[in-house]
Amino acid sequence: MVDFQTVKSEEIAFGNNNFLEIARKKAVTESGENEFISISRGFYTPEKEKRFKKSIAVPVEKEVVDAVIEAMKKISE
């Protein structure tokens, strides 16, 4: 069994009831734990509950995070 814990997160609202959640998470199992950064796209239901559609995990290594940020900046210009 895997227990996912959110260490910290930021939310970016966009469009009509949509959001991106950027979160540092920890996957904890009996054999250890692994930290990663999750980028998830979601929406709010009419009852204002969060629902997630898609997600991607990125390793927390600084070089990888910096490369992802730099690539996103390049393609958004």
Please tag this protein with its features.
1 helix; four-stranded antiparallel sheet; alpha+beta; flat; Nuclear Transport Factor 2, Chain: A; 18% helix; 77 residues
Named CATH architecture: Roll
Query: How do the strands of the widest beta sheet line up side by side?
Result: 1-2-3-4
Domain count: 1
Distance between the termini: 42 Å
What's the CATH topology name?
Nuclear Transport Factor 2, Chain: A
The major sheet is characterized as: 4 strands, antiparallel
User: Which H/E pattern describes the elements?
Assistant: EEEEH
**Helix segment count?**
1
**Secondary structure: helix percent:** 10-25%
Q: Give the overall form.
A: flat
Strand-residue fraction? over 45%
Describe the 3D structure.
This protein is α+β, with helices and mostly antiparallel strands and 77 residues long. It has one domain (3-75): Roll (Nuclear Transport Factor 2, Chain: A). Helix content is 18%, strand content 61%. The chain is built from one helix and four strands, in the order ββββα. The protein has one helix at residues 62-75; strands spanning 3-14, 18-29, 32-44, 50-59. Strands 1-2-3-4 form a four-stranded antiparallel β-sheet, with no helix packed on it. A hairpin with a 2-residue loop joins β2 (18-29) and β3 (32-44). It is flat. The termini are far apart. The model has no long low-confidence stretch (mean pLDDT 96).
Question: What's a concise summary of this model?
Answer:
This protein has one helix and four strands; from the N terminus they run ββββα. The chain has 77 residues and is α+β, with helices and mostly antiparallel strands.
